[in-house]
Amino acid sequence: MPLGYTFAMIKPSACRKNHVGPILAMINQSGFRISAIRSTKLNKEEAEHFYEIHKEKGFYDNLCEFMSSGPIIALLLEKENAIEDFRTLIGNTNPCMAEEGTIRKMFAESLQKNAVHGSDSVENAKREADYFFNERERY
Ligand code: CMP
Q: Fewer CB within 10 A of the terminal residue: the chain, N end or C end?
């Protein structure tokens, strides 16, 4: 299987609670290579752009408010079958339904503050990674 990549983000709530180190360790221990990493803070417009595929949803405004409330960690992760394997590692979007041992089960506070984001398709992984990282930032 060819190497694939996915885009991930550690959300403001998990950064605020000092969960960045343990989450990165779990990502590495699960066989992902960190190809690019950046700590940054989105403004509201940037969060709206990032989550534009959800703009018709009722939770969109609140989600963008939250995602621009503090620093995030943006990650480009490389592994075979990266998109699917990362979604398995993080668990269900709703932490109440996430399996034991998943990142969201361990570190999420709520559906919105669910610790991490992971791309759900090749197309979105490309779009999201390109939004954060240029070629010179990927190794
Ligand atoms: P994420 O993987 O970042 O992708 C979109 C986010 O929207 C999702 O995680 C959740 O944080 C949030 N989300 C999805 N569904 C709902 C919902 N029903 N109510 C509030 N937030 C939601």
A: N
